[in-house]
Specification:
Layout (H helix, E strand, L loop, with lengths): L1 E5 L5 E7 L2 H4 L5 H15 L58 H17 L3 E4 L9 H10 L7 E5 L4 H7 L5 E5 L5 H6 L2 E5 H12 L1
Parallel strand pairs: 1-3, 3-6, 4-5, 4-6
Antiparallel strand pairs: 1-2
Helix pairs in contact: 2-3, 4-5
């Protein structure tokens, strides 16, 4: 797939970029995407939920009623799960939700997500993205020039750029990541992807390594 390279004014520079078909043109694997997104979301969970069980609730162990003759179930102490204020049966306890996923599956998932974006013509390539100083107004003007102002857009850089990050951090629906931070979830969560020439080259090299 060949794309025209634009500048931050949204105009063609006259240069073309051929996207690697092994990264942006594969047959998408939906199950790999599902597994990678599932792992990403699982890793975001703190897992610090906790409810007190019968042995942890404060209260006496004294049996509150006689064993027989009460007309109901056999009574226990005040910490019994069937009583108001008692411990919870099988309540949540702290746990780690993360799980292992093979590196090749994660790579396949990212390639699949990128291929979906390429199929939907949702990828834009810039010659460079550099700001001399943090300027949100200039960043907004750029998104309008690129016709992505009203869409969730992910900007992918080859290396971190503090001025670009600071210019975009207050904008709703805009995210700036480096190639090393790029995830399947981030790709799918955006309506449009904006790369630079360097970031495309870095991304393709990452999958070849």
């Amino acid at each position: 797939m060949e794309l025209s390279i634009l500048n931050i004014q949204g105009k063609e520079t006259g240069k073309k970029l051929l996207l690697d078909k092994d990264v942006f043109g594969i047959e998408p694997n939906d199950h790999a995407i599902y597994l990678d997104v599932k792992q990403y979301l699982a890793n975001q969970r703190q897992g610090t939920h906790k409810a007190k069980g019968r042995s942890e609730v404060a209260g006496s162990r004294r049996k509150l009623g006689r064993q027989k003759g009460g007309g109901g179930a056999r009574p226990g102490d005040i910490k019994s799960p069937v009583r108001v204020g008692g411990g919870r049966i099988f309540g949540p306890v702290p746990r780690d939700y993360s799980f292992k996923l093979n590196k090749k599956v994660k790579q396949l998932a990212r390639k699949s997500a990128l291929s979906y974006k390429a199929q939907n013509s949702a990828i834009t390539v810039l010659d460079e993205l550099v700001f001399d100083a943090p300027k949100t107004k200039d960043f907004v003007a750029m998104t309008k020039n690129l016709q992505v102002a009203d869409k969730k857009t992910l900007f992918v850089l080859s290396n971190g750029n503090k001025n670009v990050y600071l210019s975009a951090r207050n904008l709703q629906g805009v995210k700036v990541l480096t190639v090393s931070e790029l995830s399947t979830y981030a790709i799918l969560d955006a309506n449009n992807l904006v790369f630079t020439e360097e970031s495309v080259a870095a991304l393709e090299n990452t999958f070849k390594a």
